[in-house]
Design goal:
747 residues, mainly beta, Maltoporin, Chain A, five-stranded mixed β-sheet
Amino acid sequence: MKNYLLTVALLWSLTASAQSDFTIDSIKTMDLKEVVVSATRATSKTPMTFNQIEKEDIEENNIGKDLPYLLEMTPSAVTTSDAGAGVGYTGIRIRGSDAARVNVTLNGIPYNDPESQGVFWVNLPDFASSVSSIQVQRGLGTSTNGAGAFGASVNIETDGLNRDSYVTLDNAFGSFNTRKHTAMVGTGLIADKFAFDARLSQITSDGYVDRATSDLRSYFVSGGYYGKKSLVKLNIFSGHETTYQAWYGVPESRINDDVDEMNAYVARNFLSAADSLNLLTSGRTYNQYTYDNEVDDYQQTHYQLISAFDLSSSLTLNVALFLIHGEGYFEQYKAGRDLSDYGLDDIAIGTQTITSTDLIQRRWLNNNFYGTTFSLDYQPNNAFRFTLGGAWNEYDGDHFGRVIWAQYASNGNIRHQYYFNNSIKKDFNIFGKVIYDVADQWSLFGDLQYRMVHYTMEGDDNDGLVIDQSHNYNFFNPKFGFKYQINDYSQAYASIAIGSKEPIRSDFTDNIDGTIPKEEKLRDLEIGYSRSTKKYSFQANFYWMDYKDQLVLTGELNDVGSSLRANVDKSFRRGVELQVGYQLAPEVKLNTNASFSQNKIESFNETIYNYGLGWDEYNADLVSYGETDIAFSPSVVAGGNIEFTPLEGLNLRWIHKYVGEQFLDNTSTDSRKLDAYYVSDAVVSYALTGNNFKSITLKVAAYNMFNKMYAANGYTWGYRGGGDEVRENFYYPQAGTNFMIGLSVKL
């Protein structure tokens, strides 16, 4: 913490001294978009594959679903929802890459959880209402801050300067008792130098899946000083989520309404009479959890101090300091747990010895993530631009568990703590980027990044195992490319990039025999062409992502049953992404995209455990499959919409999404996959303007209009025993036809 305070003092003194040395005039108020996020964003001259979603598009689609659904129409994107209705625990995969491989930054500040490297959108309820633009770079993209981008990076910029005062009230209601309430106010520019904005939001939903409720609350407060040559802005925002758990999924037999198979599932998994009745009577919205407070309860608060200084006509400095504090738990009812697993003694009651108990546990996280980001941008003319940037951050996280109730408490005290461990992860990166126009039509791009990671863990994990360990990584990630302006309408580009990425927390904690996976490496080739006229636009991008030592699930378990990831020597993703926009008529516009890909592991070996004919053995059988498809990587993903504006203020959109079949594991086995699905939505909005208000907008959305019964996510596991092989498939069913209606008033 002392090092952090010294860093803060040093950087602030640097920016203060820079401010005092101004000698030339600059723009009246600086554009936050240009100075804060430019270091990690691609531009029109960058030979990378990206899409940008502006505020107008964000507002059109922000009716109640979580932020991943606002990105669903970008190429190669697939969204998921545990509760089935787009609220609560939601996620997004891009080019088949999961959340741990999608880098997310908020105003250039890293957001991915440093340990799991995942992105938990549920901790940012209604954040989209405070967002100005989102850039999605596919592939390795340009150098960014935080966890390595191995499938995509999502760069989010919050609202910049609102020059005029405003009041906005957004309310939406819909199926599954879903409600969204948002109030926003802003002062506009005060005394030509200051501006303040605030937002308060609540989203609640019963969820599509049984008991999968969500109660999400958030606020966003921002105040800024906008000088002639400087900008200083403080953002404070927080999200508090309480969601009933829907993590377990639904057994395949329940999805298929197969009573015989459900009874077989009950017998195989020793379900109680109550749990059996729940399974047999619930339908496809089945939720294994029935304890009334089986919830995830977590609050995350962000503090961002952002500054930008125009040092000269060609030199801009940007420095940001940040702190993210997170604290919360998930609560679980556990039946028949061994007292010894919780550090409790067996109990003698008369002649009986009690060795197990029903109990309620809470598994806690309490963490701080803090650091700085910086960039120095030098642009002496339109033909040359150089950016020196980077970040330093430190994560300090406590993981611990408590028993808050037990039928037999043994020697435990109230809130008995049964495990505790602490993790510290330090991350530093520095990069230099240059774009140089060598001729009227040619631009060259270079990007060199060095990243250093130090990760330590001490204590015991929830399974009682000591996890003391320390790891160091040093990565060099170069990127090069060019862009060619063919004519006023067309351009082409190509780039080659190399990236490296460290394993995630569970790769360290679950590999208890000391066999730690190697870091992953990726070479990414991107080749693209685009053409844009007044009437139409067309983009085509070819990519080849070549992995070395990619980490995948192989079926292997440790001795307490945790799934292990292992390196596979060679794997790749290659494909083509197409985008078309066409103005069919003055009032009719078409936008569509499609991705066609191959996602392969060149040689995959699965581990399946064999308990023998008499269930008295423990053997690890190895099954070789040769070349297989990478799990959760559909070979076809397509989307688009037709937009019709018959009169001023009235907008009608018909939205389409197709996702091809996906395998639940890496064996390419047809009996373990998600079926392809096509979903169609319709959104109608009508906006009025008046003298006493800026606008009143009514929106009506119908989702999954054709009532497609589908699952967007799932998992599988299996074993051998008694001469049989058993595979248990689980799915996360999505809602059928459902509706939302919203009213937005801007004053």
